[in-house]
TrEMBL record:
<dbReference type="Pfam" id="PF03088">
    <property type="entry name" value="Str_synth"/>
</dbReference>
<dbReference type="InterPro" id="IPR018119">
    <property type="entry name" value="Strictosidine_synth_cons-reg"/>
</dbReference>
<dbReference type="GO" id="GO:0012505">
    <property type="term" value="C:endomembrane system"/>
</dbReference>
<keyword id="KW-0732">Signal</keyword>
<keyword id="KW-0325">Glycoprotein</keyword>
<dbReference type="GO" id="GO:0005773">
    <property type="term" value="C:vacuole"/>
</dbReference>
<protein>
    <recommendedName>
        <fullName>Strictosidine synthase conserved region domain-containing protein</fullName>
    </recommendedName>
</protein>
<keyword id="KW-0926">Vacuole</keyword>
<dbReference type="InterPro" id="IPR011042">
    <property type="entry name" value="6-blade_b-propeller_TolB-like"/>
</dbReference>
<feature type="signal peptide">
    <location>
        <begin position="1"/>
        <end position="17"/>
    </location>
</feature>
<comment type="similarity">
    <text>Belongs to the strictosidine synthase family.</text>
</comment>
<dbReference type="GO" id="GO:0016787">
    <property type="term" value="F:hydrolase activity"/>
</dbReference>
<feature type="domain" description="Strictosidine synthase conserved region">
    <location>
        <begin position="127"/>
        <end position="214"/>
    </location>
</feature>
Length: 310
């Protein structure tokens, strides 16, 4: 399976400012996946010790039914959009379009459903997930009903602000709503010390910073405005962040530029920009993950994972 082959090579993220120069590209082709974007995240670290971890979202799914070739099977098979390992327990947290928030035991097997909503409100489009490892907190987003349309022009022009940020405390097993009014929250990343959480707002073309700890705890602010729509955001080992940004023609909604932007979460500045447009013409990039001096690029529309490096 393409996801697991890639996973073995991605152990953790390593920062290098030289990444923005002299790129070459290799393509990892995937026979089945238009969602390879969201699996390139920190859970891949754990495949150093746990390889080929088998798990299922539902007890009745089969390889024949849920091999990724049949997009209409998502309502039956599920569609995991966010994944993250708890490094202390070995549990794999899963955020699934159909089945909500789940967890898989370290040995694999059938996923346990933790929540499908909160206080009578059902998750609509659960999307991005990241874990504060030190404090055992899982942060995840619900992007909002507008994304059910799957129509890019409708989504971009909607100015929707129905997105939400949730927090799950793995120690107390409690779920809380931390922030609402988000404009297409497709990415979430926790700072190394857990003081704040960065949220990519796809519709509003910006990154928001939510303070989880300290004197500003519970408040949020716009950290930086971006030239296009950011999908996932991932923290590097040096505690800055890479956002996957797509710039669209607002008349045709075709991709004009694809960028990986390195963001300083403390200062709110874009430190470097990697132009990926030549390799992703008319495609949407959705993730930029840094690992051992290379960038791994995910896409929700391309049939390969791009590997960029010197």
């Amino acid at each position: 399976m393409c996801h697991l082959i890639l996973a073995r090579s991605l152990i953790t993220a390593v920062a290098s400012p030289r990444l923005v120069q002299n790129f070459s590209i290799a393509k990892i082709n995937c026979k089945i996946s238009n969602r390879i974007d969201h699996v390139i995240n920190e859970w891949l670290f754990f495949f150093k010790t746990i390889e080929n971890l088998p798990f299922s979202l539902t007890g009745f799914r089969t390889k024949q039914l849920c091999d990724g070739a049949n997009s209409s099977a998502a309502s039956t098979c599920g569609r995991p959009l966010g994944l993250g390992f708890n490094f202390k327990t070995g549990e794999l947290y899963v955020l699934d379009f159909k089945f909500g928030f789940l967890v898989v035991s370290p040995g694999g097997g059938l996923a346990t459903q933790l929540a499908t909503g909160l206080n009578g409100t059902t998750f609509v489009f659960p999307n991005a997930l990241d874990i504060d490892q030190a404090n055992q907190i899982v942060y995840f987003t619900d992007a909002g009903a507008i994304f059910l349309s799957r129509n890019l022009s409708t989504i971009i022009q909607s100015n929707d602000t129905s997105g939400k940020l949730y927090k799950y405390d793995a120690r107390t097993k409690t779920l809380s709503l931390m922030l609402n009014g988000l404009s297409g929250p497709l990415g979430v990343a926790v700072s190394k010390c857990g003081a704040y959480v960065l949220i990519d707002e796809y519709i509003a073309s910006r990154v928001r910073r939510y303070w989880a700890r300290g004197p500003k705890a519970g408040s949020s602010e716009i950290l930086v405005n971006l030239p296009g729509s950011p999908d996932n955001i991932k923290r590097t080992i040096s505690d800055d962040f890479f956002a996957a940004v797509t710039i669209l023609n607002r008349h045709t909604f075709q991709t004009t530029s694809s960028l990986g932007q390195r963001i300083n979460g403390d200062l709110g500045i874009v430190e470097a920009t990697v132009n990926l447009t030549a390799q992703y013409t008319n495609n949407l990039i959705s993730e930029v993950q840094e690992f051992l001096g290379k960038l791994y690029i995910g896409s929700s529309t391309a049939s390969f994972v791009g590997v960029y490096g010197p």
